[in-house]
Amino acid sequence: MGRLAGKIAVITGAADGIGHAIAAGMACEGAHVFLSDIDDAKGEAAAAALRAAGHTARYIHCDVAEDAGIAHLIAESVRQTGRIDVLVNNAAIAIGGMPVYEMTDEQWHRLIAVNLTSVFRGCKYALPHMIRQGRGSIVNMASAQGHIGLDGWTAYAGAKGAVMAMTRQMAVEFGPQGVRVNSISPGTINTPMNEKVVAQLGGKLREAWVKMHPIGRIGEPGEVAEAAIYLASDGAGFTTGIDLRVDGGLCVTPRYVPDLL
Ligand SMILES: NC(=O)c1ccc[n+]([C@@H]2O[C@H](COP(=O)([O-])OP(=O)(O)OC[C@H]3O[C@@H](n4cnc5c(N)ncnc54)[C@H](O)[C@@H]3O)[C@@H](O)[C@H]2O)c1
User: Ligand 1 in contact with 198 (CB < 6 A)?
Assistant: First the structure.
């Protein structure tokens, strides 16, 4: 029996990268997964591939920047299955690589909408169902950048720091009702997001990333998925309010700080 057998899990930003690895990993552990994304072609294909492998997976379009999109995602998942056991607020975008004084208000508001307001809304719509059920697990995707400083990423770090603070608050508030709320802080992970960052800031970044992580490499999406599976599972039944760093040691030792800008 899988660690998530019979659980209903909803994952945002699940067409690619870490979200896709989480959806696939949770499906392999027996969860009925709802993948959601704005990339419908990739999302549908990912869900179809999981079904072809014998898992239970469906795709629902959801732009996490839109209140109605998240409301629909949660309501539709519950309508189809009657419950929601796990919500992974994963979707986010990387806007940065510039000094904070060069960031426009438009960039700031977009980043906050996709990376932070989305977490508020996901929790807002999922919590009433989880409270009614008397159990549930929310996993919010934070970042090593919510812990440490790196040139050019003030707004992104601010949003991720807020995700961790909100995670702690909700863990305290909803623990008595059986809902656990945790976050994960990945270090640098091999995903399309970072391909875009390298394209923006230059190839020397790859070498810098390897040097920055004491473990001597960047991480793989499946390694973050393992943490999400654990936090979602009953094996983490006494774990709430934590931020689980999956960062190859990045946050505990600044071995190498590159000159990025
Ligand atoms: N990759 C890393 O090194 C890293 C490090 C720390 C934290 N994270 C966090 O992990 C999470 C996943 O990152 P990733 O690297 O897999 O990203 P990614 O860009 O590789 O994949 C993100 C997915 O989210 C989708 N998406 C983008 N905007 C969306 C929106 N408005 N609504 C719904 N879906 C949307 C994309 O289509 C894509 O499928 C994010 O929260 C990110 O901040 C990533």
Answer: no
Ligand 1 site, residue 210, Cβ cutoff 6 A: no
- Of all protein residues, the one whose alpha carbon is nearest to atom 24 of ligand 1 is 13
Helices 17-28, 221-232: axis angle to 10 degrees equals: 50
Mean pLDDT over residues 65-92, rounded?
98
Task: Report which of residues 259 and 49 the model is more confident about.
Answer: 49
pLDDT of residue 259: 66
In the chain the domains, ranked by start, together with CATH numbers, are 8-246 (3.40.50.720)
Q: How confident is the model at residue 254 (pLDDT cuts 50, 70, 90)?
A: low
- Sequence-distant (6+) residues with CB within 8 A of 23 are 9, 11, 14, 33, 35, 46, 50, 57
Q: Quick one: CA dihedral 201, 203, 206, 209, positive or negative?
A: negative
Atom of ligand 1 nearest to the CA of 64: 32
pTM exceeds 0.70: yes
| Residue 130: closest CA among 185, 177, 98 | 177
Give yes or no: 256 in active site. Answer: no
Q: Percent of the chain having pLDDT more than 70? A: 97
Beta carbon of 152 within 6 Å of any ligand 1 atom: no
